[in-house]
Design goal:
By secondary structure, the chain is an all-alpha fold. It has 6 helices and no strands. The protein starts with a helix and ends with a helix.
Length: 102
């Protein structure tokens, strides 16, 4: 999915607000989620913003900081794969293409 600079700026601004736990509208949240479904980069930005919102900006030198910089939020149990409930294909849907090919 391609988007221009104006859309990119709008998406980044909404994601910045999410990371700062500022109020966003339902319309803005849906807008970002639609792009995140089809773009692993936007999905990554959104995961990282949600991690910062939940846990604050982590020290880049710590393991938590590394995980946050990679968009991994292992403290959030809902993000963990459960083979009894989850489909592996769906679980990796927002991943970068190189992971999907593995």
């Amino acid at each position: 999915m391609l988007f221009n600079n104006q859309k990119s700026f709008k998406i980044k601004e909404i994601i910045r607000k999410i990371s700062l736990d500022e109020e966003i509208s339902l319309k803005e949240r849906i807008y970002v989620e639609e792009y995140a479904k089809n773009s692993s980069l936007i999905s990554f930005w959104l995961k990282k913003a949600n991690s910062i919102r939940r846990h604050g900006e982590q020290n880049a030198e710590s393991i938590n900081g590394l995980m946050q910089s990679l968009g991994i939020d292992s403290l959030n149990g809902e993000d963990h794969f459960n083979p009894n409930k989850d489909d592996i294909y769906d679980w990796f849907r927002g991943s970068p293409d190189w992971i999907k090919r593995s």
